[in-house]
Amino acid sequence: MADPRTADSKALKALANPLRQRILELLAASGPATSTTLAERLGVTSGGTSYNLRVLAENGFVEELPERARGRERWWRAVPHDVRLPPEAERDDPAKAAIGELHRLWLAGDTELYERFERERPRLGEWADAIPYSRGAITVTLDELGDFFEAYLALLRRYQRPADETPEGARRVETRMLAFPAPGGEGAGQD
Question: What's the pTM value of the predicted model, to 2 decimals?
Fold first, then answer.
């Protein structure tokens, strides 16, 4: 995983676009692709994917692979990134709008991804029951919550590896971690 960086308004706006999110998801899941290949898989024009790939590249989320290019064909790959959202107090109005849209896109995308899993589940064999699921709550300080999140990321990094180091029988598994203060001021230690 890359070093953390706090996204500015420009990068947030680049991410807060449904097509760009789908492009990033495809590149992360399937590996490098051309604009034409992405357009075919996403059901859009290659001009649309080309433009959006350039926007993502300007913000460091994708990069060209010149060694794979043939003629006018350009190959792109997702750049590993650890993008952090700026603190609430540091967000300008465009950043707030982009973050709101990003959260909606991520939640909708995660729901859609899980629903696809459920539809494909009957064909997954021994992987059909591979869905560790946990819901809970913790009572922590802000610093402890930060530590908790960093520990989660460290655990992810422990299992992330290049394709050529993937053991036989392994497959991509989607992971998500969401933590937020309980609504209504519920819990211990309220101000």
Answer: 0.79
Q: Kindly report the backbone phi and psi dihedral angles of residue 24, in degrees, each rounded to the nearest multiple of 5, phi listed first.
A: -60, -40
- Rg for the chain (alpha carbons), in Å? 19
Domain map of the chain by residue range? Answer: 4-134
Residue that has been written with the tokens 């053991």 in this structure: 167
CA atoms of 60 and 2, how far apart (whole Å): 12
Q: Does domain 4-134 have CATH number 1.10.10.10?
A: yes
Residue 133 to residue 131: CA distance in whole angstroms: 6
Distances (CA, A) of 89 to 4, 93, 122, 146: 19, 11, 47, 17
> What is the tens place of the pLDDT at every residue in 20-29?
999 999 999 8
For strands 62-64 and 33-34, give the pairing. unpaired
pLDDT digit string, tens, across residues 157-172: 899 888 788 899 999 8
Cα 128 to Cα 13: distance, rounded to the nearest angstrom: 37
